[in-house]
Write a structure and sequence with these properties.
Blueprint: H1 5-20, E1 25-29, E2 32-35, E3 38-41, H2 43-51, H3 56-74, E4 83-89, H4 90-99, E5 110-113, E6 116-123, E7 128-130, H5 133-139, H6 143-157, H7 161-164, E8 174-177, H8 193-198, E9 204-209, E10 212-216, H9 221-237, E11 246-250, E12 253-256
Antiparallel strand pairs: 1-2, 2-3, 4-6, 5-6, 6-7, 8-10, 9-10, 9-11, 11-12
Helix pairs in contact: 1-3, 2-3
């Protein structure tokens, strides 16, 4: 990692160019990049690297991934085909609403379970963005029609749970990850029944990031401790951490574990 400000700036720019293309990313001055027309300061990232060199590579990687996703998200067109139903925390949606100067209904979240909500988004697998009021007009769909289309598209885009998840042995933590936004699977409660049945009726899950769901097949203290440890690890490293709550499956829905 270059220790000087100009070298550090060029290094971060080179990583972003790998993600977004040479023409999109320019160096405006030391510790300042331009991503398309957006000014992107690097002073806080550089200061963090100077104060803790051992964490610098991880911090830079998270910064690059987050900025690249934000740029891709901003350029996603409003189409019915890219509608998906996402699981987010209520706090993250509220923060997004504050950032755009909206109120509690701006992005149309609906309660799901515990701190989690469902919200319609545009998703291209490489990035996603929340749907704005302007997008509803572009789509020429009502709020309920958007949500219905997003739910159907989400379901159609995902293989069944047991096609990708094998039953977890006692004390083992299973994982679903990959390009599909895995937490959205939680919306389809019936799809989890075959996995729960294969685990003698016990299924506890967590969604530590927007691309990962972890699960176990027993509720022994040691197993739950192992699950929580993996949740903390993934959330600490993810550019898109989601939630540390544990959810227990039943045919009637998810419940938050104490």
């Amino acid at each position: 990692m270059p220790p000087d400000a100009p070298g550090f700036t060029e290094y971060v720019a080179s990583l972003l160019r790998q993600q977004l293309g040479d023409a999109t990313v320019v160096v405006r001055e030391p510790l300042t990049l331009g991503i398309a027309s957006e000014r992107t300061p690097l002073d806080k990232l550089y200061a963090a690297c100077q104060s803790n060199r051992s964490h610098c590579a991880d911090d830079v990687n998270v910064f690059v991934k987050t900025r690249a996703q934000a740029f891709r998200a901003a350029t996603i067109p409003a189409t019915r085909e890219t509608l998906r139903l996402a699981v987010r925390t209520a706090a993250s949606v509220q923060q997004a609403q504050r950032e755009v100067g909206g109120d509690a209904t701006t992005f149309r979240p609906r309660p799901f379970v515990g701190p989690l909500v469902t919200v319609p988004v545009f998703d291209t697998l490489r990035a996603s963005r929340l749907i704005s009021e302007k997008d509803y007009k572009t789509l020429n769909l009502s709020v309920d029609q958007v949500r219905e289309t997003a739910r159907k598209n989400t379901y159609d885009a995902m293989p069944q749970v047991l096609q990708t998840a094998r039953p977890a042995a006692a004390g083992e933590v299973g994982k679903l990850d990959g390009p599909v936004p895995q937490p959205s699977r939680l919306v389809f409660i019936d799809d989890w029944k075959p996995l729960a049945d294969a685990q003698k009726g016990k299924l506890i899950v967590a969604a530590p990031s927007n691309d990962t769901v972890l699960y176990v097949g027993d509720d022994d203290a040691a197993t739950l401790d192992a699950l929580r440890a993996q949740v903390r690890e993934i959330m600490g490293k993810s550019a898109n951490p989601l939630s540390d709550v544990l959810l227990r499956w039943s045919p009637s829905g998810w419940t938050v574990m104490p």
